[in-house]
UniProtKB/TrEMBL annotation:
Matches recorded under InterPro entries: O-antigen_ligase-rel_domated
Every O-antigen ligase-related domain range: 5-115
Keyword terms of this UniProt record: Membrane, Transmembrane, Transmembrane helix
Protein name, entry field: O-antigen ligase-related domain-containing protein
Membrane protein topology class: Multi-pass membrane protein
Matching Pfam families: Wzy_C
One GO location term (cellular component): membrane
Length: 140
């Protein structure tokens, strides 16, 4: 709780000291990255990031292979994964999602959904490459 209060005070200070919106955004990113580094170094985040997620991805892929054509159904990850995999691997707990969008999408929508989705993403990338070659997002 003390760390959250310190982070809030730091953000309040940075907002007050920021001369422009861009500078505020840079300071905000710096604060978020610093907090993330702290979490990685001083909590069990590394364990979950390196070991637990890999096991979840593998089990999710195994479930995907049970229904590879049509998948298990859109939005069913939490129910299916927690019902069928519980007790079979080390990273116990309730998993809301796979923490890997392509693997979770394959499990939920199968090849019938993944193929058009992949083609759409490739189409968007092709448009980006053939137009000016860069994204047009700006903060004004």
């Amino acid at each position: 709780m003390q760390l959250k209060a310190l982070l809030i005070l730091l953000l309040a200070f940075l907002i007050q000291e920021a001369k422009s919106f861009k500078k505020y955004i840079v300071w905000m990113y710096a604060a978020i990255i610093s907090f993330g580094i702290y979490r990685l170094l001083f909590t069990k985040t590394w364990y979950y990031f390196l070991y637990a997620r890999g096991a979840v991805w593998l089990e999710t892929f195994k479930l995907s292979l049970q229904h590879p054509i049509i998948g298990w159904g859109l939005g069913t990850y939490k129910a299916i994964f927690n019902a069928l995999v519980r007790g079979h691997f080390e990273a116990e707990g309730v998993w809301e999602n796979a923490h890997n969008e392509p693997v979770e999408a394959f499990m939920e929508i199968g090849l019938i959904g993944i193929i058009p989705l992949t083609l759409f993403v490739l189409y968007l990338l092709e448009i980006k490459i053939h137009r000016k070659g860069r994204w047009q997002f700006r903060i004004t």
